[in-house]
Each structure stands twice: as structure tokens, then as C-alpha cells.
Design goal:
Two copies of one chain form a homodimer. Chain A is an alpha/beta fold. Chain A has helices spanning about 45-50, 60-65, 70-75, 80-85, 95-100, 125-135, 155-180, 195-205, 225-235, 255-260, 270-275, 310-315, 315-325, 330-355, 360-370, and strands spanning about 5-10, 15-20, 25-30, 30-35, 35, 55-60, 90, 105, 110-115, 120-125, 140-145, 185-190, 215, 245, 265-270, 280-285, 285-290. The first copy, chain A, has two domains: about 5-270, Queuine tRNA-ribosyltransferase-like (TIM Barrel, Alpha-Beta Barrel), CATH 3.20.20.105; about 280-365, no CATH class.
Chain lengths: ~375, ~375
């Protein structure tokens, strides 16, 4: 299909750094996508995302299917126009949300039937319906419907869901080829939980189907952090090298760095914006908890190593005050910072790949992260 | 004292347009101050205020006294450094908040004793204490403690509170002259409810005390809109012409235009940001209610006459979607617009003064405001 022009410009072990262009929209890889669940990256306007250096974001098909509905978004000119966002957009398929948010889910060969978590509306998501919805939403990159499995689960159930994920991927691809002619890319999703043999077969089959990119899904669904790490580091290097590799839904900075070292190109996670709402800021020295009383008198910037407006203009004492008073400006300023922090992180990781210093960069980052922050004497920040 | 350099550059009837500078910070008049109650204009960062054209903002002494406390703000470098705001700042005195928010208030000649609405802490605000707090906060303009009266009230109580307001003003001025040497300006406040004789005496006495500016207070405390309008239009023209005239706490665009026509220079109100949180946008054609279901399909900009980023980048359908999903971005984008709307309004009113077309401008604005908006067929916007 080749609707994505993906150029790997440097390699370092399994790690890669490059440039991807889809429908005229370019993003550097490794790339981190902030999550705009309902068509809005929480607390951030497109101009704020631009200033943070974001080039691609993610929106959720499941949530947009419920509100405002795909036909309304089509009538309003598609997601880019709707959100006022000129950068690239990827929508997920809803498979993960069916697992995590929907009620009364019943999955069979046809698709996933469930009730909306908002109003109980009965909904059937099939591989074809998910393609049709994403055609209406009109992101640059669409995802196939997959069947993740909540862990712990029996080996047989993991294998069965993985086989179904392959059959659904074939149906989705056929539907997409028949009806979507907008240059929209379509990615397959590798399932298989922590079963490395199943994962390997998924990569082999899905990787040769002709998708524009391949995702590693089914992470952060109940497995241990060690299992996530093992899956990422052992499965990702088997992906076809020419395809863009999207590692779904992780995570903390250290997870990202491991995934980049293992060959991942594209990432998403709600953490930067969710943590902002609970007063947790990612910094070069670890997570700073802004609801901590000791920070109220701090004259330190949030992160002396950061170039964002929040770090340039405010001290921790002010940010701590905003959270104590439940002022919206707290989550807004920290969301701007956290999203910028993630952009700087993947950009720096990409530069390390180009220098051939990927492993050293990761070790250095993790070391700095464990330093105690002098401004937060009462509660040392940690990398979670 | 003359710590404010105030130049009236044009007059039209009672209306004036000019330029004020205090401690090197300049603002054009008529000027509208967004309200940063707890040291944050709700949902807006200083950069957002800059982009909206704001040159001066207001913060509340009462709220900042409670959290984070004046000594903490002093230690953090004063309000400008604390808030990251380089424009001018005025703090009110807390008199109005004692009336409207505090619990178990007891007012005598010494001052106002009450309990904090947050934790029940007993607090005594005296004229001198309010000067000391504002010295610590270090805004460019401080206000004296006054005694507004909730209406309806007996004529005798109104007169007594007004006389006490004069005695408190004398104490505040003496205290300010003795201890504040930072170039901070101090304004007196005219009370007297809807009693025009009392108001006239207040203006005479307070206007000749040597304040750097004079405020019209005690509005929006329970009187009718007609009484507010009568007080503004009859009392304001009696103010000493050379002093900056601050009309406190109003209001809707039409209130502002009447006050400007009556000779007001400076205004504040929570409406632009509070309305943003409830989904009400001020536009050149009236208030648009974004929670209205009919707007979900609208491809109109919020206000075709506006130059803000919200109006340039988004359609009403998207904004309506954000409110339906309770996305923070709705209040953020509409706060940016509403604050810009108020800045454009006072700027346009000032230009009308310079053209000698003040009354025509007001009539034209009010006429346009009553047009029905075609994009909101189900619920015509109105000027409230």
C-alpha cells in the first residue's frame, strides 16, 4: 500500500530514528503521541501542542463513536478540521476500550457487542464497522479491530484471541482496500499477551499481510512490568524492519526508552496529561508531586533542564498553590510541561540513536531520575 | 502622591480615553481587568492573557490572605513573580468578600472580624492590616478596606457604613503613607448604596483626601439593575476628573458601556471567565450557550467578528462537543475568547471616545447584540 513514506535514517542496535510522512504530514521518529480521547488532549489546545513540539496525536475511536458520533465528525469536515489540529492523527480501533470501559461485552466471530458506558446504547463493533467509522473520522492512520485479552487468562484463550485477531485483520484490510481511498494508512496489531510463541506467529502473519505499519498491542492489560518489558524487548526486534512499529499504550519514561532501544518508532500514553491532573510532573530528576505541602515555599523551577513556558515562568511554590486551590491552571501548566517533557525525551532518544549512544542515554536518564530533588525534601520524587 | 501617571487623551461627553502608568507598567483606558481570585485567572496562563491583550488584572486580597498567605507571597517575590505576570496588578481590599463569602462576620470600628470560609480560622481585617497584607502581596495598585452594605438595608445603616468607610480610608491612607515606599498606588472607595446624597458626600470627602485613584464600590450587592445604572451614571461624573476612576465588579458588556459613557476608566468582573466555565460565550451578537444541543452540528465560528485563536481555529460544533464531554478544553478555549471579547470591547469603546462617537457605539453594540444568531436556532442568544 505504501501510503506512509517511512525513512529510517539511523540505527543503533535494534533502535532506529527516522522520518515518517503520511498525507503530507511529517513526524520524526521515535514519536510520542499525546492522547486526545474525545477529540481533545485534556487541557491542551492545538497551539499548546504545537508549542510543545507535538507532530502526531492519538484519538479514540470508541469514545468518538459514542460522542459526537462519526457521521457528525464527517459532516464537520473530519477530525483534523473538528479538532483544529493540522499535524498527523492516528485513531485506535476501540478494541482496548471495549475491554476496559464498555459494559456487558460479548465477543464472537462477528465482532464485539457491548453497551456504551455512557447511556447503555447497544453497539456492535465489527472489523468492517471500525474501518467505516475511521473512514468517517478521517485520521491519517487507522487501526484494525483486535482482541486483547485481560490477564491472567488461560493459554488457550490467549491463542484463540490471537487467531481471531488475525482473521479480523484480514477482514479489516479487505474492507479498507475496498472503500477507503483517501490515502489513510492502516496498521495491524500484534496480540498474544506474554506468550512469546504466539507473539512470534502474530508478527509473521500480520507482518506479511501488507499493512502500512504494525503495532504491538495487548500491553498494560494486567501483566507484570517484567512481562511487559520481556514482550517489548523480545517481540519488537522480530517486526519487519521496513514497517513503522507502534508500541501501544505505554508508558512511563523508562518504558519508552526500553521500547525505543528495542526498535519501537511510535508511542502513545495518557500519562503526561493524566498525571498533570493529579499534580504529578515528570522531570529530568523524577516525578515531582505538586500537592506535597513542602513545595509551597519552593522557589525552584519545575525542571531546570526544561525549555517549556511553565518551567521558564513559574516556580514550584506557585504550581503547588494552584493545586491546593484546585485552580484549573495547575493541570493546564503541568500538562503543557509533561507533554513537552515527553517530546524532549523521544527527541533526545532519537538523537542518541544517531550518535550510536542509545544504551548510554537510557542509563544516564535512569540514573538522573533517581536523584533526590532538593526542593522536595519531604517526599523524594521517584520514577514510578 | 501621584504614583500613577494618568493622561486623559480624549473626551466625549463624560467619557474618557487615556493611558495610565504605574511602576513602569502601562495600560490603556478604559481598561478591563480579568479577575485572578487566588492568583490565577481561571483557566488562563499569563501567555494566554498577553495574547488576549490584557494589560492589567485583579487579584483578591481576601483569598490570597487565606491561601497561600501574604508572607508566603512576599517570600516568593511578590504577586508579579508568583503569578508570572509582567503586566499591572490591582488587588482589592477584601471588603466585598467579607460581605459575600466569610462566615460569622462582626464589624465594628476596629475592623471586620470573621471566620475563613475554608477552615474557620478567625481573622480580623482592619484598614491597617489590609495595607500591610497588600504591602506583602506587592501589587501596583492597592485598595482601602471599605464597608459595603448588602441591600436591602435601612438608610441609617447605609449612612453609618459610608461614614465608617471614610474613617477607615483615613486610617488606611495614613498607614500606607507611613510604611509603603514601593511606588504602590492606593485607591479610595466610594460607598453609599443607591443613596445619591450619601454617594455625593463620599465623592467629595474621599476625592479630596489625596488618593491615587477613586473607586465606585458597593455595586452588585443586591440593588436592581436600574439602581446600578442610576448610581453609575449619576455618581461617576462627580468624581474628580484628574483621578483614575475604577468601577468595581461590573459586569455585562452593556453595563460596561454605560459606565464608560459615564466616565469610568477601569473595570473588573468575573463574568468572562465564570461564563466560560458554564459554556456561555460573549459574542458581538449576544451570548451563545454552548451546551445547547442544536450547536453540535454548527460549522459557524463562535464569533465571526473576533480575532482570537478560538474563533480562528474552531467551529461551534467542536466547542459544543467539548462541553458535552466535560472536556477542560471547552472552558479554556471559551475563557480565551471571552477575555479577548472584553478587551476588544473596551478598546473599541476607547476608540469611539476618540472619534467622539461614544453614544453611537453603545447603541450600535446593543442593537447587534439583540440579533438572533442563525447558528443557534433552538435557543436565540441574548444579552443578559
Amino acid at each position: 500500500m505504501a501510503t506512509i513514506d517511512f525513512r529510517i535514517e539511523a540505527r543503533d542496535g535494534n533502535a532506529r530514528a527516522g522520518l515518517a510522512t503520511v498525507r503530507g504530514r511529517t513526524f520524526q521518529t521515535p514519536a510520542f503521541m499525546p492522547v486526545g480521547t474525545a477529540g481533545s488532549v485534556k487541557a491542551l489546545a492545538p497551539g499548546d501542542l504545537d508549542r510543545a513540539g507535538v507532530q502526531i496525536l492519538l484519538a479514540n475511536t470508541y469514545h468518538l463513536r459514542l460522542r459526537p458520533g462519526p457521521e457528525r465528525i464527517r459532516a464537520l469536515g473530519g477530525l483534523h478540521r473538528f479538532m483544529g489540529w493540522e499535524g498527523a492523527i492516528l485513531t485506535d480501533s476501540g478494541g482496548y476500550q471495549v475491554l476496559s470501559q464498555a459494559a456487558r461485552v460479548r465477543i464472537d466471530e462477528e465482532g464485539a457487542a457491548f453497551r456504551s458506558h455512557l447511556d447503555g446504547e447497544p453497539i456492535l463493533l465489527t472489523p468492517e464497522e471500525v474501518i467505516r467509522i475511521q473512514e468517517a473520522l478521517d485520521p491519517d492512520i487507522a487501526m484494525v479491530l483486535d482482541q486483547p485479552v485481560a490477564l491472567p487468562a488461560a493459554a488457550r484463550d490467549i491463542a484463540a484471541a490471537a487467531e481471531r485477531t488475525i482473521r479480523w485483520a484480514e477482514r479489516a484490510l479487505a474492507c479498507h482496500r475496498a472503500r477507503v481511498h483517501s490515502g489513510q494508512a492502516l496498521f495491524g496489531i500484534v496480540q498474544g499477551a506474554a506468550d512469546l510463541e504466539t507473539r512470534a506467529r502474530q508478527v509473521e502473519v500480520l507482518g506479511s499481510m501488507g499493512f502500512d505499519g504494525l503495532a504491538l498491542g495487548g500491553l498494560a492489560v494486567g501483566e507484570s512490568r517484567e512481562e511487559t518489558a520481556a514482550t517489548v524487548s523480545q517481540v519488537l526486534p522480530r517486526f519487519p524492519p521496513q514497517l513503522l512499529r507502534y508500541v501501544m499504550g505505554i508508558g512511563y519514561p523508562e518504558d519508552l526508552l526500553l521500547a525505543i532501544e528495542s526498535g519501537g518508532d511510535l508511542f502513545d500514553c495518557v500519562l503526561p496529561t493524566r498525571h498533570a491532573r493529579t499534580g504529578q510532573a515528570f522531570t529530568s530528576r523524577g516525578v515531582v508531586r505538586l500537592r506535597h505541602a513542602a513545595l509551597r515555599d519552593s522557589r525552584e523551577p519545575l525542571d531546570a533542564a526544561c525549555d517549556c513556558e511553565t518551567c521558564a515562568r513559574f516556580e514550584r511554590g506557585y504550581l503547588a498553590h494552584l493545586y491546593r486551590c484546585d485552580e484549573m491552571l495547575g493541570p493546564i501548566l503541568v500538562a503543557r510541561h509533561n507533554v513537552r517533557f515527553y517530546q524532549r525525551l523521544v527527541r533526545a532518544a532519537g538523537e542518541a540513536v544517531r550518535r550510536g549512544a542509545s544504551a548510554a542515554f537510557r542509563a544516564e536518564f535512569l540514573g538522573a531520575c533517581q536523584e533526590e530533588s532538593p526542593g522536595d525534601a519531604g517526599g523524594a520524587p521517584t520514577c514510578e
